[in-house]
UniProtKB/TrEMBL annotation:
Keywords: Acyltransferase, Transferase. This is N-acetyltransferase domain-containing protein. Coiled coil: none annotated. It holds the Pfam family Acetyltransf_1. InterPro entries: Acyl_CoA_acyltransferase, GNAT_dom. NCBIfam families: resist_ArsN1a. The keyword Magnesium does not apply. Residues 9-170 form the N-acetyltransferase domain. Signal peptide: none annotated. The keyword Thylakoid does not apply.
Length: 182
């Protein structure tokens, strides 16, 4: 058993000063081919425009450990159609140095809570089935698999599937008896 003290994770709204870390972590996620169908690295100018272009219902949160941003997550529009205004897609990215240390769980818990405060009814995502850590995280928070998009995108010359998952919220950032991460 590892007795190394765990550095606490703090989750807070992203700020302009976080752009370099957000860009670094996102580019690691792109390069590692575990969490996105994005294939081209992003630069800080693009990420700054992305952050500034987000509305109140689509926050970006960062996770800090020891004063350093080691991950980020956000709520994204699911669809521009008004009927879908209570459904959000989300993203969670954790820097290589912090993976497996609870950062993803801290971000996901904060995103679920934010979604409830913002009046969302449901969170959805599409994940790679081979991202075993991500799949365990989503299951721990009560997400259920609703299907698989076969050959949804091409990465490095091969077709990859994505697993579609959902979590119903009760309106207070809680889930119907699940999603507490335990």
């Amino acid at each position: 058993m590892d007795d190394t003290p765990r550095i606490p994770t703090t989750v807070r709204p992203a700020q302009d000063a976080d752009i370099p870390a957000i860009t670094r972590v996102y580019n690691q996620g792109i390069a590692d081919r575990l969490a996105t169908l994005e294939t081209e690295p992003r630069d800080e100018d693009e990420r700054r425009a992305w952050l500034l272009g987000r509305g109140e219902r689509h926050p970006v949160l960062v996770a800090e450990r020891g004063g350093e941003v080691v991950g980020w997550g956000c709520l994204n529009p699911f669809s521009p159609r008004p009927a879908y205004r209570f459904v959000a897609d989300f993203s969670v990215y954790v820097g290589r140095e912090a993976r497996g240390g609870g950062v993803g769980g801290a971000l996901l818990a904060a995103l679920i809570a934010a979604a409830g405060r913002l009046g969302y009814h449901k969170l959805v995502l599409a994940a790679f089935p081979f991202n075993e850590a991500g799949m365990r995280l989503y299951a721990r928070f009560g997400f259920r698999e609703v299907g698989v998009y076969r050959e949804q995108g091409m990465l490095d010359g091969r077709w990859v599937d994505t697993v579609v998952m959902e979590l119903l919220l009760d309106g207070d950032g809680e889930t119907g008896g699940r999603g507490d991460g335990k």
